[in-house]
Amino acid sequence: MKASYFAAMGYSERHSFPQTWPIPPAYNDPETSVQSYQDGIEECEFAEEMGFDWLSFSEHHYSGRVSTGTPSVIAAAVAERCKRVKIAMLGHLLPLNNPVRIAEELAMLDNLTNGRVITGFLRGTPNEDQVYSMNPAEGRGRLLEGMDLVLKALTEPQPFSWEGRYFQFRTVAVWPRPVQQPYPPVIVATRSDDTIRYAAEHRMSLGVSFVPVDQMAAITKKYRGWCEEAGWSPTPDNIIYRGSIHLAETDKAADDWFESLKQFKLGPTIPLRRTVAEAIQSARTGGEFDLRNLVAGSPEGDVVGNAPGLNFMGGPDTVAKQMKEFHDRAGVGVVDLLFQQPRMDHRGVMKEIELFGKGVLPQIKEY
Amino acid sequence: MPNSVVKAVFKECQVDADGCSIRYWEAGQGRPVIMLESTGWRQSMLHDTLAEKYRIISLELPGTGDSPANTSSKSIGDLAATAAKAVATITAERYTLIGTSFGAHVALWQALQAPEQVEALILVSPTAIKPLEVLAKATAQEVHQSMFAHPENAEKHPALSQEIFAKEQELVGRLTSGAHDAVAESRLGEIRCPTLAIFGQQDRFVSPEAARVYKENIANSNIAIVYDAGHCIIGDRPEALVNSVSDYAEHWETFIVGHQTGLINP
Fold first, then answer.
1. Is residue B260 one of the residues assigned to a domain?
2. What distance in Å separates residue B227's CA from the closest CA in chain A?
């Protein structure tokens, strides 16, 4: 197995954020912000030193929990410090963006890193449909067309026009060409059947985030089946799992840390007003939404979202076993790990990275 | 892009060239636009849109559609010469020449042989360069199905009768062998008029690499990829085809310049 460090670049005072999304920029103090990015970059450097194979960067908006709205910018900065690891863009939210611009960023990053880029595409979390005012009903179509356009833009040696359903460009001629030919490895991050099938049919890797191992096994079973239908067999490197982790010296120390969190009132990771969350979901599925059908609740009850959870927790041996289960049951070959947990500071993250490099990596490399 | 296209009234006419009696359909006024179809005459949104601005002359190539079998053309160049003579009889003006599929192959040769007549060339799904092998002994229905990116679009358009299909297959096979036209490729550099080559992204009849051959060899050329469309672009993405063809017919190579406003609140 390979290990990837998810470079969330979280704002260090993120535990003070209100239960809302987006986080008002008023909560951002420039001095703290500058230091938070420096801390995040230092974590990347240390992860490389400790033997991680990839550093991953994600596009997330309007939240200091993952402070990488423009992931190519931070990836370029980190890549100048980290000269060995793969730079995994996991990934760009294609429905929100201009795919030609994304192709240009990927090609440029692949040049700056001399061919170390891995690219990933995804639709994004429902709240992010609201960034740049996209119609949620169009997300799937924009993702599928966007992927085709990015790959065409990266591979077509002559200027061309693109007459799309969602995108129209009369002149596309991406410069520079990627170092990796015909294009960097591509991961489609999804749990949806139609997009899993797209990944399989296009011989792309599959990325799945935060689901339990049973669900991961069911998803990868479908993926492998569709890959076989498309005439190829994915290797473990083609199946990427992103999970949250808390690693401690011992299982008991990890449990104690988890217990200590209970004294704090942790809200959902992406807190949305219930009305907004339901309106987005309704729009995504093409349903009708009538605000008047919702009964207003208390201010706290109005906020919905997924509570922070952990996919890997314990001492080194326990975590290694948990990862082996994903490997054995779901065929996972790369684990992309979020260490920046609630109320975990920079020193704590650095300690976990060291522990992972010394206690877990040697074990999972054998899988 | 036209939101509401008025159906044009096309008049069926006839012209003689090289001993062939050739039917054509005409509508609209303005600069002449000649259309060479891949098969029999079918009025589409593209014809109607162009007829709002131009004098459209849509030619039934001898040996296609309901015309008698063509035994006189000995090469694709012969057929193109016959088409050029027919058009010269209809109009003395220079014209924009639009060809589709096999019709685009003929149009390419027409532009090579009669450059003084053709002021702009639009090739839709041209089969001249890097055609892919069509299944041997495929029926009219099987070929029809594979022309579309989406099966439901195939159902909306009637397939050729087996008789017309067989007649056209014989003509195309005899004139092109269904093979890459190396001579045409070697002469692409002679084309001086503005040229647009349009391909469906999921075309199963022509290699996607064909588009760049036109771009690399024709000095003043553009290539366009229509997303989510097969060989029959007008069947899969009619609005996209109409949009790009009508823009190019109007603006030639400057069709790359954007004219749509992004202003929301004037």
1. no
2. 5
